Each structure stands twice: as C-alpha cells, then as structure tokens.
C-alpha cells in the first residue's frame, strides 16, 4: 500500500503484530479499509465529552466538540483535533472518487471525508469515521 504524500508512519508494525493487537473487526477496518455497518458502531450517537483516539496507536484524532449528528449511521466530525492528526488520500474504490481519512501516526484507515453536503457546521465537512477505528477517552470532571 502506498503511503500518502510519501510520508512514513511513526508507528509501524508487521501485519502479524497488528493482527495480534486488534480484534478481527478492528483489523478489517483499520488495516484493510473495511467499513462497519451503519448504525452499529459504539460511538454513532455518543454525546460524551472527551477525545477520540486512534484505536490502533492511541494518537488523538478528534474531539467531542467537533462531533455532530449527521444521521448517516457513523460518527461524524467537522474537523480533526489537529490538522496534522490525519492524512487525506484519494480513494477510487467502489467506482467512486472519495477522500479516505487515515491516522497520520500509524496510517490506519479511519473513514472518509465529504464536503458541501449542506450540514450547518463551521467547515462544511463531514469526517465520516468508523467507531471501531476510534477509542473515546472521556474528559475528567
């Protein structure tokens, strides 16, 4: 698999190491770019305040204050926690042109980003992310 923009992931593991660390569902999504079924993910409707980390490497990716209800069946965010947290890469699978979202730290698949759908968000973007790619760390207090 070619790496986006020629960058090398900071966290690199062998396929065997990823398989040992991740559940079969996590592995399929994070390492093979599968998609969880809509409306089945743990975080689809979560309103808990906190940070969403990459389930593969623990890097902070999104924060709850950018999460919004898109009713698309997957957790949706209008912006990553940091512009360097994710890598965007053209995805031409399934006969469509989409923009894949990858964790910048380990290059695991997170989901896709869509623009111009008319959601009332500051960025007009919808980062449509698989719950199984994320781990929510609730804020204290």
UniProtKB/TrEMBL annotation:
UniProt KW keywords: Metal-binding, Oxidoreductase, Zinc
GO terms, molecular function: metal ion binding; peptide-methionine (R)-S-oxide reductase activity
Domain MsrB: 15-139
Reaction equations catalysed: L-methionyl-[protein] + [thioredoxin]-disulfide + H2O = L-methionyl-(R)-S-oxide-[protein] + [thioredoxin]-dithiol
A single cellular component GO annotation: cytoplasm
Entry EC number(s): 1.8.4.12
Family annotation (InterPro entries): Met_Sox_Rdtase_MsrB, Met_Sox_Rdtase_MsrB_dom, Mss4-like_sf
Co-factor requirement: Zn(2+)
Superkingdom in the source lineage: Bacteria
GO BP of this protein: protein repair; response to oxidative stress
Protein name: peptide-methionine (R)-S-oxide reductase
The species this protein was found in: Prauserella cavernicola
Gene giving rise to this polypeptide: msrB
């Amino acid at each position: 698999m070619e790496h986006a923009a020629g960058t090398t992931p900071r966290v690199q593991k062998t396929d065997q190491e990823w398989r040992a660390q991740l559940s079969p569902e996590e592995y399929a999504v994070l390492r093979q770019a599968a998609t969880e079924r809509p409306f089945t993910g743990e975080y689809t409707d979560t309103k808990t305040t906190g940070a969403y980390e990459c389930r593969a490497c623990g890097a902070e990716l999104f924060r709850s204050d950018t999460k919004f209800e898109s009713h698309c069946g997957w957790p949706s965010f209008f912006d990553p926690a940091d512009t360097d947290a994710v890598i965007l890469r053209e995805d031409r699978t399934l006969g469509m042109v989409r923009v894949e979202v990858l964790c910048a730290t380990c290059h695991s698949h997170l989901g896709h980003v869509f623009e111009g759908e008319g959601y009332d968000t500051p960025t007009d973007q919808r980062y449509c992310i698989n719950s199984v790619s994320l781990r929510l760390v609730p804020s204290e207090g």
